[in-house]
Amino acid sequence: MKGVAGDGRFEEGSFRCTLSEDPVVSRPPLPPFTAETAARKARLAEDAWNSRDPARVAQAYTVDSRWRNRAEFFEGRAAIEAFLHRKWQRELDYRLIKEVWAFTGDRIAVRFAYEWHDDSGNWYRSHGNEQWEFDAQGLMRRREASINDVRIAAEERKFHWPLGRRPDEHPGLSELSL
């Protein structure tokens, strides 16, 4: 930190803070999005979700981020973390791929698929789409997700990489005809 300016603010790198506010960390790429930066933002989100770390994922959202996930509506990082904790307790061996569908200004729409199994060993491929809206610092302030679960046989799985980040050489949704 370089110190506090006369107006009560300090800046360094991608960190900005006002003494009367919570620190705001910039999460590049920032809006307005291009095809390249929207794809990068989607890949960063995919990587975070594939970590299955609720605290890590929640840091990409504003403290008051509003979510709709299927039929659940909630707001704020604490609620996001609690939701993700429940999700990954139920959706085991979770592997996700996201792909940009459209973008403009501070919004990105993605389609995605993820594979997982329940505690009885039943495999599913969940297909969905998300609409994202970002603030000026690149934090997601709104997320709306519609998702459908399709039961699949273990032999029908297409996502076989080790748990964690999808390898760069692994095909995406379009290449997998999903």
Can you characterise this structure?
This protein is α+β, with helices and mostly antiparallel strands and 178 residues long. The protein has one domain: Nuclear Transport Factor 2, Chain: A, CATH 3.10.450.50. It is 20% helix and 40% strand. The longest helix has 17 residues, at 35-51. The protein is globular, with a radius of gyration of 18 Å.
Task: Provide a concise account of the structure shown.
With 178 residues, this protein is of the alpha+beta class. It has one domain: Nuclear Transport Factor 2, Chain: A, CATH 3.10.450. The chain is 20% helix and 40% strand.
Structural class: alpha+beta
Task: Please count the helical segments.
Answer: 3
Mean pLDDT figure: 91
Give the C-alpha Rg. Answer: 18 Å
Largest sheet: 6 strands, mixed
Order of helices and strands: EEEHHEEHEEEE
Integer count of domains: 1
Please give the alpha-carbon distance between the first and last residues.
Answer: 47 Å
Strand content: 35-45%
Envelope shape? globular
Q: What would CATH call the class?
A: Alpha Beta
The helical percent reads 10-25%
Strand order of the largest sheet: 5-4-9-8-7-6
Poorly predicted runs:
1-21
The counted number of beta strands is 9
Using the 3D structure, state the CATH architecture. Roll
CATH T-level topology: Nuclear Transport Factor 2, Chain: A
